[in-house]
Amino acid sequence: MTAKASVSFLEEALAENFGFDTFKGSQEAIIQSLFDGKDTFVIMPTGGGKSLCYQLPGIMMEGCALVISPLIALMKNQVDSIRSHGESDEIAHFLNSSLSKTQMRQVKEDITSGKTKLLFVAPETLTKEENIEFFREARISFVAIDEAHCISEWGHDFRPEYRRIREMLDLIGHNIPIIALTATATPKVQSDIVKNLRMGEDHNTFVSSFNRDNLYYEVRPKGKKEYTFRQIIKIVKEMPDQSGIIYVQSRKSAEEIAQALVVNGVKAAPYHAGLDPKTRSRTQDQFLMEDVDVICATIAFGMGIDKPDVRFVMHYDIPKSIENYYQETGRAGRDGLGGRCIAFYAYKDILKLEKFLRDKPLMEREMGAQLMQEVMAYSETTACRRRFLLHYFGEEYDEVNCNKMCDNCRHPRERVEVTQSVVEALQAVKTLDENYPLKTLTEFVLGKETKQMKDYGFTDLPGFGSGKDKEDVFWSSVFRQALLNNLVRKDIESYGTLKLTKEGEAFLKKPYTFEIPIDHDFEKELADDMRGEADDAKAVVLDETLLLALKDLRKKEAKRLGIPPFVIF
Ligand code: ADP
Ligand code: MG
Ligand code: ZN
Fold first, then answer.
1. 64 C-alpha to center of ligand 1: Å?
2. ipTM for the predicted complex
3. What does pTM read for this prediction?
4. Is residue 312 exposed (0-12), middle (13-18) or buried (19+ Cβ within 10 Å)?
């Protein structure tokens, strides 16, 4: 037998405190960086094991680690989990507005006496003067900033107080390392975090791959409510007793879908900001305990929830950004086993979201619109979805590795040769001085005589309308594929204008054969789908009064009364 490689002192501590044999990914190097006293920046996908990167050194180092975290629920979840591993309850505490004065005093005593190794605080708590005073005197080992994307307006859940963390740390005044952790990898968010936290020149950055190869990505056309509800119920029933989350944008949809599932014998519950905290926390516990299988939630659910065996994540409403989508789908298959990620997409929903943006300040509106353009591109693409997602996060990925783990790889579309069209597209980018986004460029080649085209005199430029014999979807496909293949790049700072890359210039000089699949035309696909639905299914209506009556009956044991629970199908 070969001798086992020697176990490092960190590995020993890992086994002792958490019962794990090995570190995941770069956890060990990250922890080592903290021990070296370096500012440390960790970009690791959801489920990658970020918490351990500060929990373990927190337990090991002298003093107490300060962990800044955006949500009370998230802190509670972590404190419970550390206590379950640790020897005493005092080892981890949180300090936030949910505590009484007496409880706060106790927490501070435990820190002073050295019992507490990890303290979770909200950024608001940090800004309170009496706390700053206290932290200034206390022995702090290092500061961890979890969910650090909250610092950036380009992150999916921007929290203004997060921008003041640096200011507070300066007031507290220890010269200790900080570790910032996030699952958001877009270059813009990253640079915002480093800048705002003023991380040291020699800080270490650890970026893990964002590929989750056990997740299957799929987009389906979203039709009328009844149609889509039936699809959802069908999919959920294909996976009996499995845990899943269905994300929606409105409280009403959360309630309705949960109810429709319950009537169909699925243990489902709604979760949204309109429910009181007690109910919400009960629902969350029930989900963890598997008394509830499916949660129909607005985005208020799931951040930091650690349930390893979530088998599916559906989006009834399209999310507002790819970051959101990636984070939310990331909650599936944390245990490494399968996870299905299905998004229902209708162009109408994009328009609805755009309407919400209309009253926002200019900056926010432009930003929101651009994030949504990406979601739209993701939904409509016929390229490998995994490749699209990873490209978005700045990672090159060869789709042959997808292993048919997305709908587009599993059911590939016929490819069309578009070499000449790519030339025309890139030429248009040049003609318009690399100053316009995809939408304007598409309108230009299509020869749309919009007000903008006329006002700017674009209608007289060479190439205007050169592609008018083709459809919109053809040209947006060409531009998006040019993006995916790095012939052009999108400049986020200037509202998503397309710029030619070196590769693009080279292509113009010497074009090579370029074949692409054309994007989905969802309106048409939906019409085909609806036609294909069995007649008997169509005859069933999700009537609200029927739903209510059924819910009532269920309470009185529908079965005993001889009422079949599966009435909808
Ligand atoms: P993140 O914050 O990156 O989304 P978590 O910190 O919640 O991820 O960790 C995800 C899961 O991975 C948790 O169930 C955690 O217990 C587990 N995990 C973390 N590190 C290890 C390890 N070294 N070995 C085994 N499991 C681990
Ligand atoms: Mg986390
Ligand atoms: Zn794929």
1. 21
2. 0.98
3. 0.70
4. buried
